[in-house]
Amino acid sequence: MFFRTALLVLRKDVAIELRSYEIVSTTVFFALSCVAILSFAFVNEGQAPEGTAAGILWIAIAFSGTLALGRTFERERYGETLKALLLAPAPRPAIYLGKMLGIVALMLATEIVLVPMVNFLFAASLFARPGLLVVILLLGTVGYASVGTLFAAMLVRARTRDVMLPILLYPITVPVIIAGVRGTSALIASPVDDAVAQLWISLLAFFDVVFVTLALWTFEPLMTE
């Protein structure tokens, strides 16, 4: 029942997005705009400072993820969808998990377009270890989305939600972003530092377990209040 509910919520969000492409198109455009602007600032005569690509990639992921979180729950607020889900006879942590997986899917769709652009504009060897890169992006996205989904759902009825979401989200997800940047930097180093990348992958996995567990545990009491 738990996982079935989560998959139903995920399928609902994906089906709505596939009809309109409203959030994913906005998020992708915003992320690409950030990278393009920063490339003009940092790239000089076709050369970017060493390690810049990793930081810019994760800045774009974090900012576009915040935009996706806000737009997703704005739609929930207008349609009273979240209220209807909470009134349904289903485990509330499963509703959270389904919403989180939907956010992860949106962010990963953005990253599919974002990573090649960063790789091209900053002349970074992001695809030197594609397997490790995918793991870092996936774990970092899950860690960021787990906290973001909880706070976005909690603030859905707050008047200052657009201001409060980044204020609450960024300080807590700083460890995830730092781990993502350092792990990605190890992959684009010359030579590639696999040991350091695997160390940061382990830390990302630890952060994911902690954040997802705490979010599943606190979602119901927070939403009840």
What class would the helix/strand composition place it in?
mainly alpha
Element-level helix/strand string? HHHHHHHH
Helix proportion of residues, in percent?
over 70%
Radius of gyration: 18 Å
Average pLDDT works out at 87
Number of strand segments? 0
Strand portion, in percent?
A: under 5%
Please tell me the total number of domains.
1
End-to-end gap: 24 Å
Low-confidence parts: none
Any overview of this molecule?
The chain has one domain. Helix content is 84%, strand content 0%. With 225 residues, it is mainly α.
Descriptive tags:
single chain; 225 residues; mainly alpha
Summarize the structure.
With 225 residues, the protein is mainly α.
Topology, please?
Layout: H1 2-20, H2 22-42, H3 52-79, H4 81-87, H5 92-121, H6 130-154, H7 161-188, H8 194-224
Helix pairs in contact: 1-5, 2-3, 2-5, 3-5, 3-6, 3-7, 5-6, 5-8, 6-7, 6-8, 7-8
